[in-house]
Structure formats: structure tokens, C-alpha cells
UniProtKB/TrEMBL annotation:
Lineage of source species: Bacteria, Bacillati, Bacillota, Bacilli, Bacillales
Pfam families referenced in this protein's UniProt entry, alphabetically: FtsQ_DivIB_C (PF03799), POTRA_1 (PF08478)
All copies of domain POTRA, residue ranges: 60-129
Protein name, per record: Cell division protein DivIB
Family (UniProt): Belongs to the FtsQ/DivIB family. DivIB subfamily.
Transmembrane segments: 37-55
InterPro entries tied to this protein: Cell_div_FtsQ/DivIB_C, DivIB, FtsQ_DivIB, POTRA, POTRA_FtsQ_type
Function recorded in the entry: Cell division protein that may be involved in stabilizing or promoting the assembly of the division complex.
Topology versus the membrane: Single-pass type II membrane protein
Protein source organism: Exiguobacterium acetylicum (Brevibacterium acetylicum)
Keywords: Cell cycle, Cell division, Cell membrane, Membrane, Transmembrane, Transmembrane helix
């Protein structure tokens, strides 16, 4: 028994020494792991602090929102409809599809496109509805657009090929506009001027045509009757101009002194 114990002691001492040699290495590895974990935690905290700082700073918000292409529609109205507030709206909340959809609902706007630029800067380009008539009367000059929108102000187009509207109140102008947008462009271009021809505001109209004829009709019969104007004048005596009355039927009275 004693001999066996004596034989086993050197191996036990060797195992103890081997374990003692490994302890510093194990401690070093544990220290490195702890350091790495601390670095990861610090990086994560730094990222979170950076994100919070970014969200709270002006760098995360819309820096600029430019609007191009509008002539009759005010930029302020387009900006308000877009839902964008410069220096306030977060850039990650900006949806191009939603912004354009809201802008295209603005009266007088036909189409809009948006381009994102550097550092949360946006540029919107709009296409307005075409001017189809121009009202010159109290309470002031007004422009009628192809979607029926009536906008205060003077026409800014150099060549304005559209009828002049005179003598209309706000109510009668609104009724006329609803009918005017239904007129085919090729027929509308033949109208030089439309005058409210009824002081009782029931909708009597007098139209001066570019071909020299005068047309009398009511607002209610305006779009349906006038779209047939080309057919009407083709049935008139050749070379004759005069007054065409549309009231349940079509009546033509040539001007006096003209062939």
C-alpha cells in the first residue's frame, strides 16, 4: 500500500502544477470576455443615445420643402395640403405617395411629383389645371380652371385663349362653371365672351362666338346644347350670321343688313 501511494504522488503533483499554470490563462480569457461585453454595452448605449439625440434634433426633420410649377394655386395652400411642416415634421414620417395624393386633391392641381434631395430636402413640382375662362366683374377678376375651380386674380398667361365672363354673381358663376367644364375644348375655343343675360339670376346667357354669331340660351341647357353648336351652324344658310336662340328648339335670326 505504501509503495502504491509513493508511486501516485508525482502524477498528482504534476496535475496540480498543470492546473496552476492554466489559471492565469483562464483568468486572462475571462477578463477579455468581460472587456468585450463592456465594449458592446457601451457601444449599444452610445447608439441609443445617438438615436435619441438624432430624433430630438433638427437633423431628423424636413429641412426644406420647395414647390415649383404653380402659377394660380398658392404655394401656401399646397404646403398646407401636403401635411409637411418644415423644421417640425420628422423625415421618416414623410410618405411620398401620401404627400402627392393630398397635394393632387388641392383644387386647381392636376398632377404632382416629388423628388427627395440631400439632407431631408424635398422638391414638389405641380401641374395646374388649364385656364378655361376668365371672369371680369365684381368682386374682382377670377380665373376658372378646367376642374371647375374658381380662383381670384388675373390670368398670368400671355396668350389666354378662353372666353371672358361678365355680369355674373358668385352663385351664377358657380352654376355656369359646372356646365362650362363639360364643354368640348374645340367648342369652348369658339366662345369669345359669355354675358349673364338675366337680371333675376335664373341663368339666361348671351354668348358671343368667334365666328360672329350670338347664342342665347339658359345655363341649364348650356353644355348639352352648345356641344351641338358645330352641327347647328353647319345647317345655317351659307355666309349668314345672326342670333341663335336655343329654348326647347333652335331658332336663327340673321343680323339686319348682313347677307
Amino acid at each position: 500500500m505504501r509503495e502504491r501511494r509513493a508511486v501516485g504522488r508525482p502524477q498528482e503533483d504534476e496535475n496540480v502544477r498543470s492546473l496552476e499554470d492554466k489559471i492565469p490563462y483562464i483568468r486572462e480569457q475571462r477578463r477579455k470576455k468581460a472587456n468585450r461585453r463592456l465594449i458592446y454595452v457601451l457601444i449599444l448605449i452610445g447608439l441609443l443615445v445617438g438615436v435619441v439625440f438624432y430624433l430630438q434634433s433638427s437633423y431628423s426633420r424636413v429641412a426644406q420643402f420647395d414647390i415649383d410649377g404653380n402659377v394660380n394655386v398658392k404655394s401656401a395652400d399646397i404646403l398646407q395640403a401636403s401635411g409637411i411642416k418644415v423644421k417640425e415634421t420628422h423625415a421618416f414620417n414623410v410618405s411620398e405617395e401620401d404627400v402627392l395624393e393630398r397635394i393632387e386633391k388641392v383644387p386647381g392641381i392636376q398632377e404632382a411629383t416629388m423628388q427627395k434631395q440631400f439632407l431631408h430636402q424635398y422638391r414638389v413640382t405641380v401641374t395646374e389645371e388649364k385656364e378655361i375662362a376668365y371672369a371680369k366683374d365684381k368682386p374682382g377678376d377670377r380665373i376658372v380652371l378646367a376642374d371647375g375651380t374658381i380662383i381670384p386674380g388675373k390670368s398670368k398667361e400671355e396668350l389666354f385663349d378662353a372666353p371672358i365672363l361678365t355680369g355674373f354673381t358668385d352663385q351664377s358663376l358657380n352654376r355656369l362653371t359646372k356646365e362650362l367644364v363639360k364643354i368640348e375644348p374645340k367648342v369652348r375655343s369658339r366662345i369669345s365672351e359669355i354675358v349673364a343675360n338675366d337680371k333675376t339670376d335664373k341663368g339666361g346667357l348671351k354668348l358671343f362666338m368667334t365666328d360672329g354669331n350670338t347664342v342665347l340660351l339658359s345655363t341649364s341647357a348650356f353644355s348639352n346644347s352648345l356641344n351641338e353648336y358645330v352641327k347647328v351652324i353647319s345647317a345655317l344658310p351659307k355666309g349668314k350670321t345672326g342670333t341663335i336662340t336655343i329654348d326647347g328648339g333652335i331658332y336663327f335670326k340673321p343680323y339686319k343688313g348682313k347677307k
